[in-house]
Design a protein that fits this description.
The protein is an alpha+beta fold. The strands form five sheets. Strands 1, 2, 3, 4, 5 and 15 form a six-stranded antiparallel beta sheet that branches. A five-stranded mixed beta sheet has the order 7-6-18-11-12, with helices on one face. The longest helix has 11 residues. It is globular. Pfam families: FAA_hydrolase (PF01557).
């Protein structure tokens, strides 16, 4: 059965008595466990709604982001990708650490496709049958490291906790028919009609990747972000909402600088600032105004 078929269903992966368990979300906000008991979704620790072997992320996939970043709605003829370590996974209502030696921690509101079964050599039409579900996501990045790692984005996007997912895994909903909104401290800072702006859907990207890479159950394929990714401060409350999929909420906390002084250090170059601070001349005024308001 395709992930798009049937009524909407949401499963969440939570921690009960120190163990990870799956529960089904009910209409009254309760989580129903496999033994039939229930618990309030507000009273449990949420875990990422998957156990991944890899996290694959695309570069510019939304037209507004392409215009802001490259002044082209589609900067590349085909999608290009990078990866995050699985230690980047983070759960709903968790903490995103901003290290003391970095100043540019950027949000990117997205949705993720979670792979449901071993996937290799398929067509885009077949990809829907290989997806376990969808979840709101935040592709967080420390852009202080844009000047290193030869474009692999490893230290920009790969830090611990830099891939929040959740609250749950949703089926029966077509994300291409939804709206993406990101909020900083309650103020709207990103908004996109996914079907109108997303250049390549999850079906295309999964089929593209699976030509030569076997995707395993639990693997995460992110789908990109619209315009107006900006840097956050310690104490900020960042949320991404995908209509019909849910609302993922995270808090930025301070982390100490690393003890070791080896390796490429954070930088504040022109390229770092170009990406971290964006281009306000190419984004709607309401995002700039809301961002300033949320920063107060």
């Amino acid at each position: 059965m395709s992930v798009l078929d049937g009524p909407r269903q949401e499963k969440r992966r939570i921690q009960i008595s120190g163990e990870a368990v799956w529960a089904t979300m009910s209409e009254d906000g309760m989580l129903i466990l496999e033994d039939g008991s229930s618990v309030s979704a507000d009273e449990v620790t949420h875990l990422p709604p998957c156990v991944a072997t890899k996290i694959i992320c695309p570069h510019l996939t939304y037209t507004s982001r392409g215009i802001e970043s490259r002044n082209k709605p589609q900067p590349t003829p085909y999608p290009t990708y990078f990866m995050k370590p699985v230690t980047a996974l983070n759960g709903h209502r968790g903490a995103i650490v901003k290290p003391e030696d970095c100043q540019y921690l950027n949000y990117e509101g997205e949705f993720a496709a979670i792979i449901g079964k071993e996937t290799k050599n398929i067509t885009p039409e077949e990809a829907w049958d290989h997806i376990a579900g969808f979840a709101p996501a935040l592709d967080m990045g420390l852009h202080d490291f844009r000047d290193t790692d030869s474009g692999s984005m490893l230290r920009v996007k790969g830090g611990d906790g830099m891939c929040p997912l959740g609250p749950g895994l949703v089926t029966g909903i077509d994300p291409r028919e939804q709206t993406l909104r990101t909020y900083r401290n309650g103020q709207l800072v990103q908004e996109a009609n996914i079907g109108e702006e997303l250049v390549w859907g999850p079906d295309y990207m999964i089929a593209d990747l699976a030509r030569h890479i076997t995707l395993m159950p639990g693997d995460v394929v992110l789908t990109g972000t619209p315009c107006h990714s900006r840097s956050l401060e310690v104490g900020d409350f960042i949320e991404v909402e995908i209509t019909q999929l849910g609302r993922l909420s995270m808090t930025v906390v301070s982390g100490s600088a690393p003890r070791a002084t080896v390796g490429h250090q954070p930088t504040n170059s022109e390229e770092v600032r170009r990406v971290a601070l964006g281009n306000d001349s190419r984004v709607p005024d309401r995002f700039k105004e809301n961002y300033r308001e949320a920063s107060k």
